[in-house]
């Protein structure tokens, strides 16, 4: 049973350190860290390492050739198992952006490149974890904090690191910004890219149209059938993005292609769609045409499941203890959370302070959510730790 005394100490620690945390946020927002700017990302990494040093939190650095480094910090708890907190240090804003529009405060809104996506989230997890280390270590699982350098370009090197660090975790909290309405993210869509290629037979369409086999006609018939596979009830989408076919206007088309993008909440829904498309591709509506299908899933979905539902319940309860009302949202964002959840680890995203207009000049973070989100993460991690036997 958590004594109220311990909770008081935890929350007092956060309150007492809010200004320090804000000053640190300002300093990393004012450090450019475009995904491709290795030096910039490592400048942010250095500041984070300095803060971890000052908090007595040990960490390991993994140096990367092309991108900034990974930092993996560890707080030892007394209970078995570990909880992974993660966030990315890069932004979508090129070197020099912070000179043009540095960190600023406009009433309740904090401004500056990456303030909400997601430098505030980085600060949130460091301070929440420090409070727990100081005052609640005996009720805690291990906490690992992973800082990644290139999320904004799809985590080409971090995907493997996230999977490696998440695979033995009991739960993963991703510190992307809380949605504008304050909600956290419990599911995201996956996406797939497919390509259909159709071979027909060319002939002069004036003199010998009957000798030709039109790949274009075959494609048109296939497209109508494929669009019928789109399932609105399950929100499985089918977009036929690019079609190409034919050689000239007086020739029966010998070749046609189409690309398809699909978004889906569950991998099994996509598998069903794929089977349907495969059947259509393997059927020649115009005798003599031959078609092939290539491509597949490119981003796995963060599928809603019992583990995520349980984690969300803990977050929701923790919010209620603070008299906060938290809701959940299913969204397309947050690829990094998808990497963790796709290997079966309960993952929740958008635990950071509330903000919006990400990647735009009017990006903002709501100042009055800074302390509450630190406290929410701290309470959620502690409550999850205590739920482990
Ligand atoms: Zn982000």
Structure keywords:
25% strand, alpha/beta, six-stranded mixed β-sheet, Aminopeptidase, Alpha-Beta Plaits, 389 residues, 38% helix, 2 domains, binds zinc ion
Molecular structure report:
There is one protein chain. This protein is an alpha/beta fold and 389 residues long. It folds into two domains: 4-188 and 301-387, Aminopeptidase (3-Layer(aba) Sandwich); 190-299, Alpha-Beta Plaits (2-Layer Sandwich), CATH 3.30.70.360. 38% of the residues lie in helices and 25% in strands. The chain has helices at residues 4-29, 38-54, 97-100, 115-135, 158-166, 215-227, 267-282, 306-321, 335-341, 370-387, and strands at 59-62, 70-75, 82-88, 104-106, 109-111, 142-148, 169-174, 177-178, 184-188, 190-199, 237-245, 255-264, 290-299, 328-331, 347-348, 352-356, 364-366. The strands form four sheets. A six-stranded mixed sheet has the order 1-2-6-3-7-15, with helices on both faces. Strands 4-5-17-16-8 form a five-stranded mixed sheet. Strands 11-12-10-13 form a four-stranded antiparallel sheet, with helices on one face. β4 and β5 form a beta hairpin. α8 (306-321) crosses α10 (370-387). The longest helix has 26 residues, at 4-29. The model has no long low-confidence stretch (mean pLDDT 95). It binds zinc ion (ZN). Zinc ion is lined by residues 88, 117-118, 151, 176.
């Amino acid at each position: 049973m958590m004594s109220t005394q311990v909770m008081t100490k935890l929350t007092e620690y956060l309150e007492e350190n809010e200004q320090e945390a804000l000053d640190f946020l300002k300093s990393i927002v004012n450090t450019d860290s475009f995904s491709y700017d290795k030096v910039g990302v490592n400048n942010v990494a250095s500041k984070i390492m300095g803060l971890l040093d000052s908090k007595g939190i040990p960490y390991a650095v993994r140096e990367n050739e092309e991108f900034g480094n990974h930092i993996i910090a560890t707080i030892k708890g007394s209970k078995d198992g570990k909880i992974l907190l993660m966030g990315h240090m890069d932004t979508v804003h090129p070197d020099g952006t912070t000179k043009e529009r540095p960190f600023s405060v406009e009433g309740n809104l904090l401004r500056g490149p990456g303030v909400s996506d997601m430098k505030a989230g980085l600060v949130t997890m460091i301070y929440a974890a420090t409070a727990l280390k100081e005052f609640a270590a005996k009720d805690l699982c291990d906490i690992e904090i992973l800082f990644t350098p290139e999320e904004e370009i799809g985590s080409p090197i971090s995907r493997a690191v996230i999977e490696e660090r998440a695979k033995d975790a009991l739960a993963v909290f991703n510190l992307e910004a809380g949605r504008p309405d304050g909600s956290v993210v419990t599911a995201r869509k996956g996406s797939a890219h497919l390509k259909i290629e159709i071979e027909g037979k060319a002939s002069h369409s004036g003199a010998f149209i009957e000798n030709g086999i039109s790949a274009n006609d075959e494609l048109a018939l296939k497209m109508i059938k494929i669009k019928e596979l789109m399932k609105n009830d399950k929100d499985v989408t089918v977009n036929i993005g690019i079609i190409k076919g034919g050689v000239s206007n007086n020739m029966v088309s010998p070749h046609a292609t189409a690309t398809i993008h699909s978004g889906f909440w569950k991998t099994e829904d996509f598998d069903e769609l794929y089977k349907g498309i495969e059947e259509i591709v393997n059927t020649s509506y115009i005798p003599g045409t031959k078609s092939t299908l290539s491509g597949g899933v490119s981003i796995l979905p963060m599928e809603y499941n019992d583990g995520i539902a349980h984690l969300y319940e803990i977050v929701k309860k923790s919010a209620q203890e603070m008299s906060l009302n938290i809701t959940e949202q299913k969204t397309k964002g947050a690829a990094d959370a998808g990497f963790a959840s796709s290997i079966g680890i309960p993952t929740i995203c958008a635990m950071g302070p509330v903000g919006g207009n990400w990647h735009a000049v009017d990006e903002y973070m709501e100042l009055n959510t800074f302390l509450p989100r630190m406290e929410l993460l701290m309470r959620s991690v502690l409550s999850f730790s205590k739920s482990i036997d």
